[in-house]
Amino acid sequence: MNSHRITRPAAWTSLALAMATPTLHAEPAPTVVVTAARTPQALNEAISDTISISAEQIAASGAGSIIDLLQRQRGIEIARTGGSGTNATVFLRGANSNQNVVLVDGVRIGSSTTGAANWSAIPLSAIDHIEIVYGPLSSLYGADAIGGVIQIFTRKGQGAATLTASAGYGTDNTRAAEAAVAGSLQGFSYAISAGKEKSDGFSATRPASSSYNPDKDGYDRQNAAARLSYEWAEGQEIGTQLMHGSLSSQYDSGAATFDVRSIAALNSVAFYSHNQLLPNWLSAVQVAQTRDDGSTYSSATASGYSQINTKQTSWSWQNDITLGRDVLQLLLERRKEEVETNGYQLTSPQRITNSVAASYNARRGEQLFNASIRRDRSIYGAKNTGALGYGYFFSPALRASASYGTSFRAPTYNELYYPGYGNAANKPELGKNGEIGLHYDQNDRSLSATYYRNRLTDLMVNTTPCPYVGSAYKYGCAYNINHALLAGLTLAASQQLGAYTFSASADWQDPKDETSGKQLARRSKQHGNLAADYNGAGWKAGVEVQLSGERFDDAANKARLPGYGLVNLYASYQLNRDWSALVRWNNVGDKQYDLARNYTTPMGKVFAALRYGYQ
């Protein structure tokens, strides 16, 4: 999803872009991305396959959650155990949720026990834009960046104060409201937002499930975010970023009359200082902490209460040194993870990872080069990762790329310490990925094709019988035994014709467990998206088609999930300069489909909203 404008990058990024020696083509308003190289670059100079979802695209889509938005992007599949109030698994190029890194303004989020981000608690209302980088980036971001990196950028105030707000109502008695204010004055920038969504929901399970209860499983989601910064001198900026998301959701646990529910809270705070130390040296220091807290209430007794809280505290110092048209990057990082639980006693309630990394990005004529190397040391030992990339412009519009990179995923706390399941001797998963791509971007047309082959060793599986001695492991355990291959071809195209824009993407992939020869659970071999949008005369309207081939709900490939196709419609109308109305209709055909066996997915769902300040 390319747009022909500069997206608003993070605070230090805008400063870096202004101070660094320009390396972009002399073409109007290219999109600038940050995540692919941890430094600003034109999207068409990112060697890694990268997309940017702009603020305008997010607003126009009318998406109700970040999961709805991600599900429409190429190379991404979703699995969910119920409706919008339940957490989701995001597969990136066939890689599992815990094999991808999720960042919010450069701050890593996710649970140390599961290794995955709690997507349902991330507030869409605070998001300015999103960047998705496909392929291994462990040499830049460390552990878990096997399938790729998804970075969310929150809003940053700029110019005169602006107010945006919306309120809406939809199917299942869904009510939602949000508001945000942003602006800047005399070096001070601010952006503050808050939102709330509540829904009666529907039964999360189907009658075939052993947990089935025909009652409705609703949810209550709240969020708030703030981003404040102050530029006290030219090239010298300090700031803070805060985000809070909470979700109380009901789920099924048989015919119990007790209000069975889970409560999740995601909190993140960061302080940073970005300083132009020399004309060619930009320093960025950041201290951040994220908390991912989760509780479940399965009965009225104390035994029915479970709590798992994880905290990550990180320190980083990034230095971007411009050498002519090249950029040398030097990085020091330290991350401390802590886990608290009432369910079991941890043998090691915290772990610290120390990291050092370096990268080099260069351009020579029509050729692009990058190289990166990183060393991470923690309780699982030291891991070295690296990457090399090359790109070549056949013309200003046509570019080829090739890259190779290594990656790893650190064992989670559950895989190391959970009683009867984990083992402290478990090793990190390792990945080796090679890919080639061809990209064309000219005026109102874009085309891309990328082939990748990512081989994983020491894949962690739940194996039975367990090789460890002891009756506590009779139900299986986490164990490094399998090899996997994530290989595939991704095609994408878009074309603008006057007020109309047509886009399509298709993924052919083979996410396979090479040890068993079986297809990895809940991942299809083919999936894709089609979309047509109209923007003119005050109207924005569109149709989306989501397609997926069959999948299996289990590693043994016994429980088949049929393929499906969904059609979604949306339309918005600008009533006057400030006010607009939006209507979105998901799953127009009222189709029943499966993302996880015996779990319900939304049937036809309509949502309408009145918005102020959206353009």
Which SSEs are present, and which pair or pack?
Elements (H helix, E strand, L loop, with lengths): L10 H9 L12 E2 L7 E2 L7 E4 L1 H7 L4 H5 L5 E5 L7 E5 L7 E5 L2 E3 L17 E8 L3 H4 L6 E7 L7 E9 L3 E12 L2 E15 L14 E17 L2 E15 L10 E18 L2 E17 L7 E19 L2 E16 L8 E15 L2 E12 L2 E13 L4 E12 L3 H5 L11 E14 L2 E19 L13 E21 L2 E14 L4 E2 L6 E11 L2 E10 L2 E2 L7 E2 L2 E11 L4 E8 L18 E8 L3
Parallel strand pairs: 6-9
Antiparallel strand pairs: 1-2, 3-8, 4-5, 6-7, 8-9, 10-11, 10-34, 11-12, 12-13, 13-14, 14-15, 15-16, 16-17, 17-18, 18-19, 19-20, 20-21, 21-22, 22-23, 23-24, 24-25, 25-26, 26-27, 26-28, 28-29, 29-32, 30-31, 32-33, 33-34
Named CATH architecture: Beta Barrel
Extended strand count: 34
Shape: globular
Number of helices, counting only DSSP H or I runs of 4 residues or more: 5
Tally of separate domains = 1
Cα separation of the termini: 19 Å
Q: By helix and strand content, what is the structural category? A: mainly beta
* Approximate helicity band: under 10%
The main β sheet shows up as:
22 strands, antiparallel, barrel
Signal peptide: 1-26
Membrane topology: Multi-pass membrane protein
Family: Belongs to the TonB-dependent receptor family.
Domain TonB-dependent receptor plug: 47-149
